[in-house]
Write the structure tokens for this entry.
Amino acid sequence: MELIKKALKWINGFNKKQWLFVSIFTTTSGVWFSLVLNFWGNSLNLTRINSDGSREFTLLGAALTLATIIWSMLSYASQRYCEYHASNLKIDEETVNQTETMYETVGSGVANVFEDVVSNKISYIDNLENGVEKIPKQIFTKPCNELKRITEEICKNLSKLLSYKEYNIKERDISVNLFYKFQYQCDQWHRIDSSRNETGMTINELFSDGTTIHECLNSPTKFVYYHSKEDAKNANHYIPVHLDEYDNKKKLKGSIVCYEVVVYKGDLEYIDCMISISTYRKKFSNKEDGDIIAYNIKNNILSEYIPLIKSALCDLYVYRMRK
């Protein structure tokens, strides 16, 4: 069946390329039986008259007639098949577009719902802080476990995003760390355990001047991406750790990205979150693909998890208030 489909596509393609020849042939085949055979069949040795007066094909006439019929049938069949195939492709493209639109609508709707959930939770936290409501004796969620799971899922998605062409970055090559601080705890940062956090640096050192996290905290975009840690180090925005590996030229191999997320109640900052993603043995991508990778990390991966992170941190806020 596949061979037949390929043959029909080839015939249709040939007809389109040799359109002049095909047009002449099609016109000729249309008058083959009515004019050519009737009027010039004998003179062209395509037909002959038997002794009883009947007419029959010569071997040449039979061969040409059979070839004309077969080619006409195949040309028509190939045209109809390609038209049908193109129609299905159009339908498939429309279906894909409709599906993409649906996913975008659903994704936007879910994000809006979670924003409402976070808004309600922050209002509840605000009431707790101001004594309007009593701090609950227990909560029925496990925010730390949820946040750990989120960092694991981010790591999995990043691994799929960053594995392309000659690159194949595995989950174990990626470190996803999530830090947070709460308004009532002033400037004290905490870290959620993640896939890899053995940097050998304290939290205060990670947030100190000269680090990528510190640069992100002072960035108006709240997002910092370095394709090369070597470039970040040279710009005084990265401090190497013992996990970092170097190439033959003694340059850092990895990449790093930081993204800050803040949850407000009006103008009051209640929750500050920092997501740090790093590799130590291999860069995220080729240098020329850096902008695309940075965009996908921020807008197609992290942004999808931000509502979940905010919601879980709200629950963790309430949980910490009980202590």
The first strand starts at residue 47 and ends at 49. Residues 139-321 form a domain with the Beta-Lactamase fold (CATH 3.30.450). The beta strands are 47-49, 55-57, 174-182, 190-192, 223-226, 256-265, 268-279. The CA atoms of residues 128 and 244 lie 43 Å apart.
